[in-house]
Amino acid sequence: MDNSRKALNLLGLAEKAGKLASGEFQTETAVKKGRAYLAVIAEDASENTRKKFRSMCEYRNVPCIVRFRKEELGRAAGKDLRSSMAVLDEHLAAAFRKAAGREEE
To answer: What percent of the chain has pLDDT over 90?
Structure first.
């Protein structure tokens, strides 16, 4: 299994465990309340969305990865298109970062 698939499977696992906030509002709330260990932003999200989450995450010391497309993120969580997600579990966040193979942007 390639690392991209593994990373997306980890998002599905986080969703099943109730440890994933998906969608802009839920992601923003999780980051601002200090519950997010990692934010994942879609590569094809708008420039404003990417900039907003990068700034928000940087300010709160939350790792932020820009990776995958909205369709891939949504499918991984069993949902429609998603431009952002927050992983709410420290170990799942670390495993995703390792599998995604790309450091924060």
So the answer is: 90
